[in-house]
Protein backbone atom coordinates (compact mmCIF):
# COMPACT_ATOMS: atom_id res chain seq x y z
CA UNK A 1 0.00 0.00 0.00
CA UNK A 2 1.14 3.57 -0.70
CA UNK A 3 1.29 6.07 2.13
CA UNK A 4 -0.22 9.49 1.39
CA UNK A 5 1.17 11.47 4.32
CA UNK A 6 -0.12 15.01 4.53
CA UNK A 7 2.66 17.41 3.58
CA UNK A 8 3.70 19.56 6.50
CA UNK A 9 4.72 23.19 6.63
CA UNK A 10 8.33 22.03 6.95
CA UNK A 11 8.00 19.80 3.86
CA UNK A 12 6.65 22.63 1.74
CA UNK A 13 9.16 25.23 2.91
CA UNK A 14 12.03 22.81 2.27
CA UNK A 15 10.75 22.19 -1.26
CA UNK A 16 10.40 25.90 -2.03
CA UNK A 17 13.90 26.51 -0.69
CA UNK A 18 15.47 23.75 -2.80
CA UNK A 19 14.13 24.62 -6.27
CA UNK A 20 16.82 26.23 -8.50
CA UNK A 21 16.17 29.90 -9.27
CA UNK A 22 18.27 30.39 -12.43
CA UNK A 23 16.61 31.85 -15.48
CA UNK A 24 13.23 33.49 -15.89
CA UNK A 25 11.20 30.33 -16.40
CA UNK A 26 8.19 30.14 -14.08
CA UNK A 27 6.91 26.73 -15.20
CA UNK A 28 7.60 25.25 -11.73
CA UNK A 29 4.66 27.31 -10.41
CA UNK A 30 2.16 25.42 -12.58
CA UNK A 31 -0.56 24.17 -10.25
CA UNK A 32 0.95 26.08 -7.31
CA UNK A 33 0.41 29.71 -8.32
CA UNK A 34 -1.40 31.62 -11.01
CA UNK A 35 -0.79 35.01 -12.60
CA UNK A 36 -3.17 36.71 -15.00
CA UNK A 37 -1.41 37.76 -18.19
CA UNK A 38 -1.72 41.17 -19.88
CA UNK A 39 -4.19 41.23 -22.75
CA UNK A 40 -1.61 42.41 -25.30
CA UNK A 41 0.56 39.23 -25.18
CA UNK A 42 4.06 40.68 -24.92
CA UNK A 43 6.07 37.74 -26.31
CA UNK A 44 3.77 37.29 -29.33
CA UNK A 45 3.78 41.04 -29.99
CA UNK A 46 7.57 41.07 -29.75
CA UNK A 47 7.70 38.30 -32.33
CA UNK A 48 5.65 40.45 -34.72
CA UNK A 49 8.10 43.33 -34.32
CA UNK A 50 11.16 41.11 -34.67
CA UNK A 51 9.91 40.01 -38.07
CA UNK A 52 10.55 43.52 -39.40
CA UNK A 53 13.76 44.34 -37.51
CA UNK A 54 17.28 44.28 -38.94
CA UNK A 55 19.25 45.10 -35.76
CA UNK A 56 17.81 44.09 -32.41
CA UNK A 57 18.76 44.32 -28.71
CA UNK A 58 16.97 42.71 -25.74
CA UNK A 59 17.92 44.33 -22.42
CA UNK A 60 18.00 42.30 -19.18
CA UNK A 61 16.95 39.16 -21.02
CA UNK A 62 16.93 36.93 -17.92
CA UNK A 63 17.47 33.36 -19.03
CA UNK A 64 16.39 34.26 -22.57
CA UNK A 65 13.08 32.43 -22.30
CA UNK A 66 10.82 35.26 -23.47
CA UNK A 67 13.00 36.06 -26.45
CA UNK A 68 13.31 32.38 -27.32
CA UNK A 69 9.50 32.09 -27.30
CA UNK A 70 9.11 35.19 -29.47
CA UNK A 71 11.51 33.77 -32.06
CA UNK A 72 9.93 30.34 -31.83
CA UNK A 73 6.89 31.50 -33.79
CA UNK A 74 8.72 31.03 -37.07
CA UNK A 75 10.34 34.47 -36.87
CA UNK A 76 13.76 34.81 -38.46
CA UNK A 77 16.45 36.27 -36.19
CA UNK A 78 17.46 39.79 -37.32
CA UNK A 79 20.86 40.09 -39.02
CA UNK A 80 22.28 41.75 -35.90
CA UNK A 81 20.85 40.44 -32.64
CA UNK A 82 22.17 40.83 -29.10
CA UNK A 83 20.93 40.58 -25.53
CA UNK A 84 22.27 41.80 -22.19
CA UNK A 85 21.99 40.24 -18.74
CA UNK A 86 23.58 41.10 -15.41
CA UNK A 87 23.17 37.98 -13.24
CA UNK A 88 25.88 35.38 -14.02
CA UNK A 89 23.65 32.27 -13.72
CA UNK A 90 21.21 33.86 -16.16
CA UNK A 91 24.03 34.83 -18.54
CA UNK A 92 25.01 31.18 -18.74
CA UNK A 93 21.44 30.01 -19.28
CA UNK A 94 20.61 32.71 -21.83
CA UNK A 95 23.78 32.00 -23.80
CA UNK A 96 22.94 28.31 -24.07
CA UNK A 97 19.38 29.09 -25.15
CA UNK A 98 19.97 32.02 -27.52
CA UNK A 99 23.33 31.32 -29.16
CA UNK A 100 21.82 28.62 -31.41
CA UNK A 101 19.42 31.31 -32.65
CA UNK A 102 22.30 33.58 -33.63
CA UNK A 103 21.94 35.97 -30.68
CA UNK A 104 25.02 37.17 -28.80
CA UNK A 105 24.49 37.43 -25.03
CA UNK A 106 26.61 40.12 -23.34
CA UNK A 107 27.19 40.19 -19.58
CA UNK A 108 26.39 43.75 -18.50
CA UNK A 109 25.34 45.16 -15.10
CA UNK A 110 21.79 46.47 -15.03
CA UNK A 111 22.83 50.02 -14.11
CA UNK A 112 25.87 50.29 -16.42
CA UNK A 113 25.96 52.00 -19.83
CA UNK A 114 24.93 49.67 -22.65
CA UNK A 115 28.09 48.26 -24.29
CA UNK A 116 27.06 49.22 -27.82
CA UNK A 117 27.68 52.14 -30.17
CA UNK A 118 25.11 54.86 -30.70
CA UNK A 119 22.46 54.44 -33.41
CA UNK A 120 22.99 50.68 -33.63
CA UNK A 121 19.54 49.07 -33.28
CA UNK A 122 16.20 49.67 -34.95
CA UNK A 123 14.42 47.64 -32.23
CA UNK A 124 15.24 47.50 -28.51
CA UNK A 125 13.10 45.44 -26.16
CA UNK A 126 12.92 44.54 -22.49
CA UNK A 127 10.47 42.58 -20.38
CA UNK A 128 10.47 43.68 -16.75
CA UNK A 129 13.66 45.77 -16.65
CA UNK A 130 14.70 46.52 -13.07
CA UNK A 131 15.42 50.19 -13.77
CA UNK A 132 15.16 51.37 -17.39
CA UNK A 133 18.19 53.42 -18.46
CA UNK A 134 16.28 55.77 -20.75
CA UNK A 135 19.22 57.84 -21.95
CA UNK A 136 21.09 54.67 -22.91
CA UNK A 137 18.08 53.19 -24.67
CA UNK A 138 17.68 56.38 -26.70
CA UNK A 139 21.41 56.47 -27.47
CA UNK A 140 21.64 52.97 -28.99
CA UNK A 141 18.42 53.32 -31.02
CA UNK A 142 18.70 54.33 -34.65
CA UNK A 143 16.72 57.42 -35.68
CA UNK A 144 13.15 56.21 -36.06
CA UNK A 145 13.89 53.05 -34.05
CA UNK A 146 11.49 51.57 -31.49
CA UNK A 147 11.70 50.61 -27.83
CA UNK A 148 9.11 47.92 -27.05
CA UNK A 149 8.82 46.79 -23.44
CA UNK A 150 6.63 45.49 -20.66
CA UNK A 151 7.51 47.17 -17.36
CA UNK A 152 6.44 46.20 -13.88
CA UNK A 153 3.67 48.49 -12.65
CA UNK A 154 3.24 50.32 -9.33
CA UNK A 155 2.84 48.31 -6.14
CA UNK A 156 3.47 45.02 -7.92
CA UNK A 157 2.74 42.08 -5.55
CA UNK A 158 2.68 44.66 -2.75
CA UNK A 159 0.24 42.74 -0.57
CA UNK A 160 2.91 40.05 -0.28
CA UNK A 161 5.78 42.55 0.12
CA UNK A 162 4.04 44.45 2.91
CA UNK A 163 3.03 41.23 4.65
CA UNK A 164 6.73 40.53 5.22
CA UNK A 165 8.14 44.07 5.43
CA UNK A 166 5.27 46.11 6.81
CA UNK A 167 3.86 49.28 5.23
CA UNK A 168 6.20 50.72 2.62
CA UNK A 169 6.77 54.43 1.85
CA UNK A 170 4.43 55.80 -0.78
CA UNK A 171 7.42 56.97 -2.84
CA UNK A 172 8.62 53.39 -3.25
CA UNK A 173 5.20 52.19 -4.37
CA UNK A 174 5.03 54.85 -7.11
CA UNK A 175 8.55 54.41 -8.52
CA UNK A 176 7.26 52.29 -11.40
CA UNK A 177 4.22 54.34 -12.35
CA UNK A 178 3.49 54.61 -16.11
CA UNK A 179 3.36 58.41 -15.84
CA UNK A 180 6.92 58.46 -14.51
CA UNK A 181 8.07 56.17 -17.30
CA UNK A 182 6.43 58.43 -19.89
CA UNK A 183 8.09 61.54 -18.47
CA UNK A 184 11.51 59.86 -18.27
CA UNK A 185 11.27 58.48 -21.82
CA UNK A 186 10.29 61.85 -23.23
CA UNK A 187 13.07 63.56 -21.27
CA UNK A 188 15.52 61.20 -23.02
CA UNK A 189 14.20 62.28 -26.41
CA UNK A 190 11.83 59.40 -27.12
CA UNK A 191 8.29 59.82 -28.41
CA UNK A 192 5.72 57.68 -26.58
CA UNK A 193 3.39 56.36 -29.27
CA UNK A 194 1.55 53.73 -27.19
CA UNK A 195 1.31 53.11 -23.45
CA UNK A 196 -1.01 50.58 -21.82
CA UNK A 197 -1.46 49.50 -18.21
CA UNK A 198 -3.41 46.67 -16.59
CA UNK A 199 -3.80 45.57 -12.99
CA UNK A 200 -3.61 41.77 -12.77
CA UNK A 201 -4.19 39.12 -10.10
CA UNK A 202 -1.59 36.72 -8.68
CA UNK A 203 -2.51 33.82 -6.38
CA UNK A 204 -0.19 31.54 -4.41
CA UNK A 205 -1.71 28.17 -3.51
CA UNK A 206 0.86 26.90 -1.01
CA UNK A 207 3.75 28.20 1.08
CA UNK A 208 6.34 26.47 -1.14
CA UNK A 209 5.29 28.77 -3.97
CA UNK A 210 5.71 31.83 -1.75
CA UNK A 211 9.20 30.74 -0.68
CA UNK A 212 10.34 30.00 -4.23
CA UNK A 213 8.90 33.28 -5.54
CA UNK A 214 10.70 35.38 -2.94
CA UNK A 215 13.98 33.52 -3.62
CA UNK A 216 13.59 34.03 -7.36
CA UNK A 217 12.32 37.63 -7.49
CA UNK A 218 14.92 38.89 -5.04
CA UNK A 219 13.96 42.58 -5.03
CA UNK A 220 10.52 41.91 -3.53
CA UNK A 221 11.80 41.18 -0.01
CA UNK A 222 15.52 42.03 -0.15
CA UNK A 223 17.68 39.55 1.73
CA UNK A 224 14.83 37.07 2.12
CA UNK A 225 15.74 33.80 3.83
CA UNK A 226 13.50 31.10 5.25
CA UNK A 227 15.27 31.27 8.61
CA UNK A 228 14.77 35.02 9.04
CA UNK A 229 11.13 35.04 7.98
CA UNK A 230 10.06 31.67 9.38
CA UNK A 231 7.49 33.12 11.84
CA UNK A 232 5.77 35.10 9.08
CA UNK A 233 5.88 32.15 6.71
CA UNK A 234 4.34 29.90 9.34
CA UNK A 235 1.60 32.44 10.05
UniProtKB/TrEMBL annotation:
**Name used for this protein in its record:** Methyltransferase domain-containing protein
Q: Gene3D superfamilies, from UniProt?
A: Vaccinia Virus protein VP39
Signal peptide bounds: none
List GO molecular-function terms, semicolon-separated: methyltransferase activity
Q: Which residues form the Methyltransferase type domain?
A: 62-148
| Organism of this sequence | Streptomyces doebereineriae
Q: Which UniProt keywords apply?
A: Methyltransferase, Transferase
| Protein's UniProt keywords contain Ribonucleoprotein | no
Q: Per its UniProt record, what Pfam families does this chain match?
A: Methyltransf_11
Any one biological process term the GO annotation gives: methylation
Amino acid sequence: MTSHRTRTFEDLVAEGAAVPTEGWDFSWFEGRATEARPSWGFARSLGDRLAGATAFLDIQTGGGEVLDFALGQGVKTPLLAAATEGWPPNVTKATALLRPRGIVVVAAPEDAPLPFAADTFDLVSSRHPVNPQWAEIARVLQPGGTYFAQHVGPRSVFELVEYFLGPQPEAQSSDRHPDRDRAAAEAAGLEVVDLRAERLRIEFHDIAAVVHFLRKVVWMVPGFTVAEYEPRLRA
